[in-house]
Write a structure and sequence with these properties.
Structural class: alpha+beta
Shape: globular
Order of helices and strands: HEEEHHHH
Strand content: 15-25%
Distance between the termini: 39 Å
Number of helices: 5
Bound molecules: zinc ion
Strand order of the largest sheet: 1-2-3
Number of strands: 3
C-alpha cells in the first residue's frame, strides 16, 4: 500500500471517528445487541429496525476505540436500506478486506469507505476492533 493511500484510509477512519454517522440509541428498534471486545475494551450497542428482510434503520452507541467506532459508523451507512442477504455479502467483503491471508487490494471506487479497513489488517490486534460492530449486528439478528 502506498503512503498516499495509507494516509487517505487514515483520514476516512479519523473522519468517521470524529463524526460517527447514525450514532445514538434508537427508541423504536426491533432488534438490539451488545458487543464487547475484551482485548481492546471496546463496548458497543447496536439498534436495528427490520421490516421483513429489509434493514430500515441502524444506529449504534459505543465506548470504544477509533477503529471500532469508525467501522461501526461505516457499517451503519452500508447496512441502511439493504436486505439481510446484501448485508451478509457486505460483511463477507469486510472480513475479506481484513484478512491477512487474502491480503486483498481494496478499491475505494468499488468498496466505498470500507476500503479503509484494509489498512487495519497491518495491526493484527485491531482486527477484532473493526469486526466487533458486525458481530454485534449478527447477534442482534439472532436476538
Ligand atoms: Zn478497539
Amino acid at each position: 500500500m502506498s503512503d498516499d493511500l495509507h494516509d487517505l484510509y487514515q483520514d476516512i477512519i479519523l473522519d468517521h471517528n470524529k463524526r460517527p454517522r447514525h450514532y445514538g440509541a434508537l427508541a423504536d428498534y426491533t432488534h438490539t445487541a451488545e458487543g464487547y471486545n475484551p482485548i481492546c475494551g471496546d463496548k458497543l450497542t447496536i439498534f436495528l429496525v427490520l421490516n421483513g428482510d429489509h434493514i430500515e434503520a441502524v444506529q449504534f452507541e459505543s465506548a470504544c476505540c477509533a477503529i471500532c467506532k469508525s467501522s461501526a459508523s461505516m457499517m451503519t451507512e452500508v447496512l441502511t436500506g439493504k436486505t439481510l442477504a446484501e448485508a451478509e455479502t457486505a460483511f463477507k467483503r469486510v472480513a475479506d478486506l481484513l484478512s491477512t491471508e487474502l491480503n486483498l487490494e481494496a478499491d475505494l471506487s468499488v468498496d466505498g469507505e470500507i476500503a479503509a479497513l484494509a489498512g487495519v489488517r497491518k495491526f493484527a490486534a485491531r482486527i477484532k476492533c473493526a469486526t466487533l460492530p458486525w458481530h454485534a449486528y449478527f447477534a442482534a439478528l439472532k436476538g
